[in-house]
């Protein structure tokens, strides 16, 4: 995911803005809080697979539901790490 997806490309239906360019007030409000990036938060080997079969997408509406889905597979700690990392990056980017 880190190598194959062009995270900085324009998203369908959104206007691409170069770094350092000024946005009008409406655009700033629409794009506020939206990050389009992928960050590696953990890499390693585990003793036992947590997920079996074909990969699939599960859509959830909030972070609590995302954690519950992963908890069913015994890997809620993956979500905890990702969530904590995203909060950390938001704090850094806002300062």
Give the termini distance in whole angstroms.
Answer: 28 Å
Morphology? globular
For the biggest sheet, the summary is: none
Supply Rg. Answer: 17 Å
What is the tally of helical segments?
A: 3
Q: Give me the secondary-structure category.
A: mainly alpha
| Beta strands, count | 0
Average predicted confidence as pLDDT? 77
Strand content: under 5%
Proportion of helical residues: 25-40%
The secondary-structure element order is HHH
| Spans where pLDDT lies below 50 across 5 or more residues | none
Protein model, in words:
There is one protein chain. This protein is mainly alpha-helical. It has a domain at 44-94. It is built from 3 helices and no strands. It has helices spanning 25-31, 63-72, 76-94. Helix 2 runs antiparallel to helix 3. The protein is globular and about 40 Å long. The mean pLDDT is 77.
Summed up, what is this model?
The chain is mainly alpha-helical and 95 residues long. Helices cover 38% and strands 0% of the residues. The longest helix is centred in the last third of the chain and has 19 residues, at 76-94.
């Amino acid at each position: 995911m880190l190598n194959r997806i062009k995270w900085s490309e324009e998203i369908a239906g959104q206007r691409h803005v170069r770094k350092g360019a000024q946005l009008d007030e409406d655009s700033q409000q629409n794009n506020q809080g939206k990050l389009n990036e992928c960050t590696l938060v953990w890499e390693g080997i585990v003793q036992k697979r947590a997920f079996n079969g074909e990969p699939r997408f599960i859509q959830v509406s909030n972070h609590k539901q995302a954690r519950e889905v992963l908890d069913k597979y015994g890997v809620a700690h993956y979500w905890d790490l990702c969530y904590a990392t995203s909060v950390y990056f938001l704090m850094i980017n806002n300062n």
